[in-house]
Amino acid sequence: MTTTTSSQEILLEIKNVNKNFGGLQAIDDVTLDLPAGVITTLVGPNGAGKTTLFNLITGHLMPTSGTIHWLGKSLKGVEPWQVARLGIARTFQDLRLYSQMTVEENIMTVMERSSWLWQGGRKAAEQRVTEILNETQLLDKRNDRAVDLAYAERKFLSLARIMASEAKLWLLDEPASGLDPRSFERFVTLLRTYAKRGITICIIEHNLDIVIQLSDRVAFLDQGKLLAQGSSEDILKDPHLAAIYFGERA
Amino acid sequence: MIAYLQNIAVLFCINAILALTLNFIMGYAGIFSLAHAIFFGVGAYATAYIAMHASDSLLLCMAASAAISAVLSMALALPALRVRGEYFVAASLGLQVIGVTIFSEWKSITGGLGGMIGIPRPKLWGYTFNDDTAFLILALVVLGIVVGITALLVRGSFGRSLMAIRDSESAAQTYGKHVNAVKTLSVAVAAGLAGIAGSLYAFYISFINVESFVLETSILLMAMVIIGGTGTLFGPIVGAALLMSLPAALTYLPFLPPTELGAIQQIIYGLAMVLLMMFRPGGLVGGRSKEKSA
Amino acid sequence: MLFTQLFINGLQTGALYALIAAGFSLIFGMTRIFHAAHGATFTIAGYIFYECYSVLQLSWPVAALAATFAASLFGVLLDRYVYAIIQRHEGSFFTVFVASFGMAIIVQNLIGMIFGRGAVTVSTPLSKSLEVMSGLYIAPIAAVVIACALIFFIALQWLLTKTSLGIALRALGENPNLIEVYGLTPRLLSQYVFLIGSILVVPAAILTAATSGLNPAMGNHVMLISIAATIVGGVGSLRGAALAGLILGMAENLCLAVIDPQWSEAVTFVILFLFILFRPGGVYGRAVMS
Questions:
Q1: Are B267 and C110 contacting, i.e. CB atoms less than 8 angstroms apart?
Q2: Between 20 and 30 A from A118 (CA), which of A136, A179, C73, C74?
Q3: 3-state secondary structure of A99
């Protein structure tokens, strides 16, 4: 049961997508819509296919069948770097920051899309960088190398990169795991701010408290199948789903 | 004495350009190439051929050398960069081997094993660089320009792209970097500038043959970059200076048999490479900067 | 007749290359270490055999044993004292490769200083060619080479599939964390891999010494073949590397029917380039797009 109002535009349409790895059905006939400005959380036991779904969207994997449309255009055969330039960005569970580069460089390089030897637009870029550094409270760390940051700061840098990407769709893979309560509050506020600006956010998350606090909608995946979607109350209070979730965990 | 020092200085400039350009792809892009001597050679042969058969104009020859080297490098880069880094090593090794064979066999263009003799000094706006001191100044100017270009690229957006790809290629792709295009372009720039070094070399020495462009040369260049420090702007220059002064320094040690000096040199920088990788992977200038990723 | 001659030569060369490539592929596939000093191991084995057999006039089993001992010692010590340290603090492909390469340079030059830079051969009664048919010359040693290669491969196959060590080694390549189940550590297994990989080159080195001869720079050629065969055969596939070694050896010889000898090394790399262009996964390998 999706809750979309007529004013919410569907940005990403996943229709009947299947992904088969030589016998293993990783994604099984998944249909999911992601509307603008809505925070959707993907939950499900380990191995349910959540990260695989992200990989299918970003072009790192190709669907065995089914379609994925972004802003009306098919993403079939589109390379990851092209997908990024179309406005979709993601974070990784293992962050994959540019470790030897400074915080500022990490953010700047995301804004520098062109492959040419020289790009203009320096002034505007610098302003935006400072803005982002402020929002993520990394301003005093701007010249520190990514590898030297503390854990929470690294998580925020990961978010800063996606903020710099000017993407309309954010795919976040366990972005808040391990954050202390105060950082977590900041994190949630930041996400909500961007969602209000019309960014569509889809989060993979295991921690149910986080899911409850963050989500507008929840989608439950198990063994590659989308079992249910709805508001966080509907999904999390469903005893049948809980059994699968906790049963699988034990 | 002056002539001797001037000679060393010119050769130093040429080697420094080669080391700087190799560092551009090894240290900044993380692409490991064993074929740098070939791009050096292509530039040298191109200039030699043009200077002896068509025109001894400095700008024309250098431009031709740069262009031919750059285009050749793309022939290597485009297929080899589609796959993992280890494959590029193999492909570059292949290019180095085949390149030497071509240099030795294509007699009409390269003079075969005998090489090319009698390459004239270059002419720029009516002035011919017959004077060795004048040539040294030319070499220094070219080195300065190469340092300038490298610094501009490295400190700008292109350099950031390279480093991003080096630090996490999957993240770079995910955030919109056209990895292949960036890598190919970096290889082309490095090869083109190496071609210019080759051009200088041909003009200066006036005689070139395949012996200057063999695998040992590529290895020596690699050693300069590694020992000086990858990923730093001045590391390769330090490395070039050190490794070039090694032969002279060794002649001062009387207990070393003179016939074995070449071998001893190689052992020393082989040993330096091993020890540095174990304890100081960033090289002499870079220090311990290579740590595990964030 | 020329073709048959080249074919037989190709088989002989191919058998040697298969052994060399298998050793490198084993090490690279299982430890992900680009062991650029593999050629150095080969050179050491060859020269030790030469020293013991031709110079010191010891019997060939003793010489072979000495060569095996020297090669394994080199491989294992390199892994334990150089690679291990590097892997502990950083261990990127680049760093390990460079250290390995540095080692190869040191070995090449040391051997050049001790034994001279020219070629040396070990002459054995088996090395002399006999005219088997008109125009067809084969030395009995060719049969020895091929038989040796087969024996070693069968032994390797048995080791990898029938012994618990072998199974553990294969697991090391796939998932190093599984190793603890066997009560072993990745470090210890790595030592075994280097031991086996280094031993594999010894027969190839000895036989090369007896056929085409040795020179200090031959390690480079060995490395070229190892790398090319590993890629053409497919990274991670031992069978592929051996098969590719055989193919490369055959190609190197058969092409002599049409081109000059100086280009035979280039043929190896043309084959390599073609594979990189059209089939980077190699004959048996997994897909390798990054």
A1: yes
A2: A136
A3: coil
pLDDT digits (tens, 9 = 90+) for C207-224: 888 888 899 989 988 988
d(CA B191, CA B199) in angstroms, rounded, equals: 12
* Contact (Cβ atoms closer than 8 angstroms) between residue A11 and residue A169: yes
Buried b (16+ CB within 10 A) or exposed e, A160-193: bbbbbbebbbbbbbbbbeebeeebbebbbebbee
Q: pLDDT tens across B98-152, in order? A: 899 999 988 888 888 888 888 888 888 888 888 889 999 999 999 999 999 999 9
| Burial group, residue C56, by CB count within 10 angstroms (0-12, 13-18, 19+) | exposed
Task: Return the pLDDT at A1.
Answer: 40
Between C133 and C159, where is the model more confident? C159
Residue reference for tokens 């789903």: A241
Query: CB–CB of B32 and C94 under 8 A?
Result: yes
pLDDT digits (tens, 9 = 90+) for B263-281: 888 899 899 989 988 888 7
Distance from the B37 Cα atom to the nearest Cα atom in chain C, whole angstroms: 16
Q: What is the pTM of this model?
A: 0.84
Chain center to CA of A90: 5
Cα angle, residue A191 at apex, residues B170 and A54 outer, rounded to 5°: 35
Residues of C with CB below 8 A from B226's CB?
98
- The dihedral sign for the CA sequence B95, B205, B248, B193: negative
Q: Which amino acid is at C181?
A: V
ipTM > 0.90 for the complex:
no
Pseudo-torsion of CA A194, A197, A199, A201, nearest 10°? 40
The percentage of residues in chain A with a pLDDT greater than 70, rounded to a whole number, is 93
CB within 8 Å of B84: residues ≥ 6 apart: C288, C290
CA triple B29-B33-B39, angle to 5 deg = 110
Give the distance from residue C113's alpha carbon to the nearest chain B alpha carbon, in angstroms.
7
pLDDT in tens, C222-236: 988 898 898 888 887
Cβ contact A147–B294 (<8 Å): yes
**Torsion sign (Cα): A84, A85, A88, A89:** positive
